[in-house]
Design a protein that fits this description.
The complex is a heterodimer.
Chain A: E1 23-24, E2 26-28, E3 31-33, E4 40-45, E5 50-56, H1 60-78, H2 83-99, H3 101-112, H4 116-137, E6 151-152, E7 155-159, H5 165-178, E8 182-186, H6 193-204, E9 212-214, H7 219-226, E10 233-237, H8 240-250, E11 256-260, E12 266-269, H9 275-287, E13 299-303, H10 307-318, H11 339-354, E14 358-360, E15 376-379, H12 386-389, E16 396-402, H13 405-413, E17 420-424, H14 428-437, E18 442-445, E19 464-465, H15 472-475, E20 478-479
Helix pairs in contact in A: 1-7, 2-4, 3-4, 4-5, 9-10
Chain B: H1 11-14, H2 17-25, H3 32-42, H4 49-62, E1 63-66, H5 74-85, E2 99-102, H6 107-114, E3 120-125, H7 135-147, E4 152-156, H8 159-163, H9 167-181, E5 185-189, H10 192-195, H11 198-210, E6 215-217, H12 229-246, E7 251-253, H13 261-274, E8 287-289, H14 292-305
Parallel strand pairs in B: 1-2, 1-8, 2-3, 3-4, 4-5, 5-6, 6-7
Helix pairs in contact in B: 3-12, 4-13, 4-14, 5-6, 7-9, 11-12, 12-13
Classes of the chains: A alpha/beta, B alpha/beta.
């Protein structure tokens, strides 16, 4: 039969390109050193729940040590160093990331659960590109429009999420180092491995000790780090809930803060859109990285006159998504990162069904072990539903309709968040009209989830404040 | 099933260029950046082992083995026909190709060379490749090829008429050629390299399908760019949507520039994930090519034996 002609055979990327140690210590002052406490965290492969490695949990005493090392490095080496010299280190790091990208992509897929196609084609190229981009700025800061002689702030405390572990590390570390700051960074507790691999890259690049310190741990470690009075700057990417807590801790201390938090992005499809590409954009908007994307297009706003046709095409397209082994090169949807996140997605999906929205998923076999959730589309959603208001952070799309352009904008903006939006129309004037009215930090025109180091990224309202990326991203790390 | 309904345009739409324009320009637009990105994404599919083996055999069965040179001779065409019927004399398990594609004056030669092999004979017609000839010349070109035994006719559309907005001329010419084809299958070459925009490719695809095309084909192979993945993606979307709208299934044939097995497999992935598995059959999808066949044979041997053989082990025809 025709439908059996072309079953793609398994095409797994080799796991042997990466070697994972059974156990990792903290990276402080250029060396791996044991934590002062005995607590350890086991990081799992979310695709099969097998343990990958144990990592140390940094205590507040370890945070003190790391901040002291970063301060020393700032005062003695990195702060006084000419920008051109700092740039050389960043270029070196960028090149090493590029050279080791295959290994790092496999490691990221193992620890995070995201498909190798995305780590290989998105996470790794973008992470290297970020270092290349900010390496170029290091000796040009007086020309960045931030005053004649922008000065670094000092020690930056940085806490990053689990959805793009290495890429978020690059977004945080590259601009901080380019501007002459030193950093103490805490990766997420479920995805510490690429940050630890990055620590070794810093050693390989002969980065002066203390410029980059990596502390593994969970919430308590993060709290100790962002509250530490020896830091001059806090940068956080993660949930709005934790962001609020950090804002409270930092308020009144005089330390600088940037927050990149949640989102409930609207993807607006007008009736004159290029429909096949709009369908692709909807899929990229919500199913890229299993929907673990703060700027995901998790609310589809489609003009009512084309809603039926669009949804029919969307479902046909979603049926072709391939869910399974993250290391298979043909996998489109990988594993959910953790049991906790899976529970949250399930809870919100249940709420959608209870509120009478109609859920649909393609016939799709989920692997027995590991954390999995099928791509899901909810129709009949209204603004009052929880699944239209709360960030699900999973492969779940809520579909709403609108009748007129004004209604589309009103619904898109009717959210406490304001991180991203997408607009699909073949009419240039309507595109510009919509972009001017949407309250979101990033607006994509006839595309979605496209990133570039030269482009600033950040949110409005509960999506946070400050910008990362581009020239604007320098501003968060200098005294102008 | 094919040919159950012609799905011609309603007479009031086909009546004037104004109404045809309104209809064709009412089709959804194509975003070029998005179409290219989708084609590039599908090109990263990794087709290995058993899937690769199946894809290679399917691709061989889909080849329209083509020679369209001023220097073509009966001897050259006979050699090509021998290759089409038995692509690898050392390995009888290799399937035959779908058809041989030649100029109209060499159809009779091909027909006699291929008698009893099951390989079809396709002929280009209608003043290929430019299409710049009076309609009666195009029709007699077509009729002659059919009389000589061509089972498939690859016509070219009048790109000048299309680009000047004379959609009616293009439409009626295809209807006339389809009529002249009789029982022979009609492939309509859009020459997408001259239409340039993907919006034009989509409109020309729908125009040709409504006019009765059994296949829509990208290129003559004489204009650069010839077949590309994004253009083929747009045409596959068109046949998928046309079947959904009218119930009539139309085939697709990219032609020109497809030389490596890797390229052929990418086209099959595109078919599989765009139009769907219903099109994964030589009845509905063809690859217009000449040098591709030897690369398919070479990769097939590699999969069977684990080793590459040199090009001298494959016949040059």
């Amino acid at each position: 039969m025709a439908d059996q002609i072309f079953e793609y055979a398994p095409a797994p990327e080799s796991r042997s390109v990466v070697s994972i140690d059974p156990s990792y210590e903290l990276f402080i002052d250029g060396a791996f050193t044991p934590a002062s406490g005995d607590e350890r965290i086991t990081t799992l492969n979310p695709a099969d729940e097998e343990p990958l490695a144990e990592v140390a949990v940094a205590t507040s005493a370890d945070v003190d040590r790391a901040v002291a090392a970063a301060r020393r490095a700032f005062d003695e080496v990195w702060g006084p160093m000419p920008g051109a010299e700092r740039g050389k280190y960043l270029f070196r790091i960028a090149r090493i990331i590029q050279e080791r990208s295959r290994e790092l992509a496999v490691l990221e897929s193992l620890d995070n659960g995201k498909p190798i196609k995305e780590t290989r084609d998105v996470d790794l190229p973008l992470a290297a590109a970020h270092f290349f981009y900010y390496a170029g700025w290091a000796d040009k800061l007086p020309h960045a429009g931030l005053g004649p002689d922008p000065r670094p702030l000092g020690v930056a405390a940085q806490v990053i999420p689990w959805n793009f572990p290495l890429l978020m590390l690059a977004w945080k570390i590259a601009p901080a180092l380019a501007t002459g700051n030193t950093v103490v960074l805490k990766p997420a507790e479920t995805t510490p491995l690429t940050a630890l691999a990055f620590a070794r890259i810093c050693q390989e690049a002969e980065l002066p000790p203390g410029v980059v310190n990596i502390l593994t741990g969970a919430g308590a470690t993060g709290r100790a780090l962002v509250a530490h009075p020896g830091t001059d700057k806090v940068a956080f990417t993660g949930s709005t809930e934790v962001g609020r807590e950090i804002a409270r801790a930092v308020a009144g201390t005089g330390r600088r803060l940037t927050l990149e938090l949640g989102g409930k992005g609207a993807n607006i499809v007008f009736d004159d859109a290029a429909i096949d590409q709009a369908v692709e954009g909807i899929v990229t908007g919500i199913f890229f990285n299993q929907g673990h994307v703060c700027c995901a297009g998790s609310r589809l706003l489609v003009q009512e006159s084309i809603a039926d046709e669009l949804l029919e095409r969307l479902k046909a397209r979603v049926e072709r998504l391939r869910l399974g082994d993250p290391l298979d090169k043909n996998t489109d949807i990988g594993a959910i990162n953790s049991a906790a996140q899976l529970a949250r997605i399930r809870d919100l999906a249940r709420a959608g069904a209870e509120e009478q929205a109609v859920g649909w998923s393609p016939a799709c076999e989920l692997p027995e072990r590991g954390y999995w959730f099928p791509p899901t589309v909810f129709t009949g959603v209204s603004q009052a539903h929880r699944i239209a208001r709360e960030e699900i952070f999973g492969p779940v799309l809520s579909v709403l309709t609108f009748r007129t352009p004004d209604e589309a904008i009103a619904k898109a903006n009717n959210t406490p968040y304001g991180l991203s939006a997408g607009v699909w129309t073949e009419k240039g004037s309507r595109m510009l009209w919509a972009a001017n009215r949407l309250r979101a930090g990033v607006i994509w025109s006839n595309t979605f989830n496209k990133f570039d180091p030269a482009s600033p990224f950040g949110g409005y309202k509960e999506s946070g404040y400050g910008r990362e990326g581009g020239r604007h991203g320098l501003e968060a790390y200098v005294n102008a | 099933m094919p040919d159950t309904a012609v799905a011609a345009l309603a007479p009031d739409i086909a009546a004037s260029n104004t109404s045809l324009r309104a209809y064709l320009h009412g089709l959804p637009g194509v975003d070029e950046v998005g179409a290219r990105a989708r084609a590039a994404d599908l090109a990263t599919r990794s087709i290995k082992t058993t899937a690769k083996r199946a894809a290679i055999d399917l691709a061989i069965r889909m080849v329209d083995l083509t020679t369209l040179e001023g220097a073509d001779t009966p001897g050259k065409v006979r050699a090509l026909c021998a290759k089409a019927a038995l692509p690898d004399p050392q390995d009888r398990s290799v399937p035959r190709v779908a058809a041989v594609c030649v100029y109209p004056d060499l159809v009779a030669t091909a027909v006699s060379a291929l008698a009893g092999t099951g390989v079809g004979v396709a002929s280009v017609a209608t003043a290929f490749p430019s299409g710049r000839a009076p309609l009666d010349a195009k029709l007699s070109d077509t009729r002659r090829a059919v009389v000589d035994g061509a089972t498939e006719i690859d016509m070219v559309i009048d790109r000048g008429a299309f680009l000047s907005g004379d959609y009616r001329k293009v439409y009626e010419e295809i209807i006339a050629v389809k009529d002249a084809c009789g029982a022979a299958h009609l492939k309509v070459i859009l020459e997408t390299g001259e239409l340039v925009t993907y919006d034009n490719v989509r409109r020309a695809s729908w125009l040709a399908m409504h006019a009765g095309a059994d296949f829509i084909k990208t290129s003559t192979g004489k204009v650069s760019p010839a077949a590309t993945l994004p253009v083929t993606l747009v045409m596959l979307e068109a046949v998928r949507d046309f079947r959904a709208a009218t119930g009539r299934q139309v085939g697709v044939k990219p032609a020109g520039g497809i030389r490596a097995t890797k390229d052929a497999v990418r086209y099959l992935v595109l078919v599989n994930e765009t139009a769907g598995p219903d099109w994964l059959d030589p009845v509905w999808f063809r690859l217009g090519a000449s040098s591709l066949l030897n690369d398919l044979l070479m990769q097939r041997t590699k999969l069977t034996t684990g080793a590459y053989q040199g090009p001298d082990y494959y016949t040059l025809d």
